[in-house]
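Z., the sequence and structure:
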Amino acid sequence: MKLVFSGGWLGQEGLFQAQIKRVHALQSLQEIKQGQSFLVVSYHAGAQTLHLPLRRPLYPLVLQIEVGELLPFGGGSEDKARLRLLSSSFTERDFIACVEKVKKMIQEGTFYQLNLTCRFDFELSGSPMELFVAYYRRQPVPYAFFLELEDFYLVSGSMELFLEKRGRRLLSKPIKGTATSLRTLSQSVKDKAENLMITDMVRNDLSKVALPGSVRVEELFRIEKFKTLYQMHSSVVAETQEELPALLEATFPPASVVGAPKRKAVEVIDQLEPHLREYYCGCAGFLLGGDFTLSVLIRTAIGRGRELSYYAGAGILWDSVPEKEWQEVLLKVKAFHRRVETLQSTT
């Protein structure tokens, strides 16, 4: 068993590794305990928080991994890992048709926005660890990690902060808006509208567990540059006296990966997407006593042996251009699969 992670979790640079002491597979968010551990929560835990009969996941709903020492990681110098695309849960044509269906539902007032995702299935040659290190080096992000357990492994290159708690201060940084050009993203009315909508959802979620009058937006429409793309995020802060299970009950799943209103969006996603999201679009991170840092599990793959599935999605609004949404999905795969152009013809 292995846990390797980027230094952003600790406010440092480079890669680190954690000593794994024990792994707990939990069936409820209420079973999460305090203590130094690494937590992984499946997207499907939303069935509990939103009281919806979602499809059941194949993997445990919650993983809580007791960890010991956190040390610098010195391995992974070679890049021998190779990926061969086998299939995707949507073809390009079917994804575009599904976007049209979502747009019609928006026009009918079913919801205002919905995040539609696609799963890409690969065959891996080489080790998952080599794949993770190469992935991180191509696109360094603060919340990357590689978790290898007995039955499966996770590779995540997330740059999105779901929740961070320090004392009574709670922080969330929802991402909405992706482009290869700073100018394109900064001038995009569509991306700003979507970002504002999701930021307002986060404000509403945090208000359920915040001290009265403490919720506020610290940043709006901030753009960050990464190696393969630009991302727009906003920052929402609050003061709270609640502990992690209650905070997750009020805020999970993350607003940025579902839609608005949240409950209806999650219900429709479960009907429209041909794949299970599993841990993708869930959350993960470190618990240190009562404090914690949790990322949104975007840019994430789940693997068993040589079989590996990577996921990417796009937020759909009433004025979305279906072909552009598909291109956004492919862009998000680019850091994971070098020859992203092959996805176009294969799918």
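DSSP finds nine helices and 18 strands in the chain. Residues 2-346 form a domain with the Anthranilate synthase fold (CATH 3.60.120.10).

Let me know what you think.
H.
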